C-alpha cells in the first residue's frame, strides 16, 4: 500500500502555504506514519500472524478432510443417478422426438415473390 504525503494532503493550484510549514508537515506526516506502522507491527504483527495461520490451517483442514471427500462421494453417487436418468430419457423421450422429427421432415416450404 503506497500512501504518500502528496496523496493525502494536496494544496490546489494557486493556494500554497509557507515552505517551512509544508516541509514540517511533510516530515511530521512521514515520520509519524513510519513509527506508527512499526509500533503497530511490533504489537499486533505476531498475534495476527498466529490468528491468520490458524484460520488458514482450519480452512485447509476442512477442505482436505470434509469438502473434497463430500464432493467425490457426490460425484460417485450422481453417476448412478445419471445412468438411470439417461435410461429413462432414451426409453421415453427418444421415440417421441424421433416421431416428431419424422412428422416435421415431411414439411415443405416454398417461397414465392409476387
TrEMBL record:
Presence of keyword Membrane: yes
Alphabetized UniProt keyword annotations: Cell membrane, Golgi apparatus, Isopeptide bond, Membrane, Transmembrane, Transmembrane helix, Ubl conjugation
Transmembrane segments: 39-66
Entry annotated with the keyword Cell membrane: yes
Compartments, record wording: Cell membrane, Sarcolemma; Cell membrane; Golgi apparatus membrane; Membrane, Caveola
Membrane topology according to the record: Peripheral membrane protein
GO aspect biological process, one term: regulation of membrane potential
Recorded GO MF terms: molecular adaptor activity; transmembrane transporter binding
Pfam families: Caveolin (PF01146)
Listed GO CC annotations: caveola; focal adhesion; Golgi membrane; sarcolemma
Family: Belongs to the caveolin family.
Known role: May act as a scaffolding protein within caveolar membranes. Interacts directly with G-protein alpha subunits and can functionally regulate their activity. May also regulate voltage-gated potassium channels. Plays a role in the sarcolemma repair mechanism of both skeletal muscle and cardiomyocytes that permits rapid resealing of membranes disrupted by mechanical stress. Mediates the recruitment of CAVIN2 and CAVIN3 proteins to the caveolae.
Annotated protein name in UniProt: Caveolin
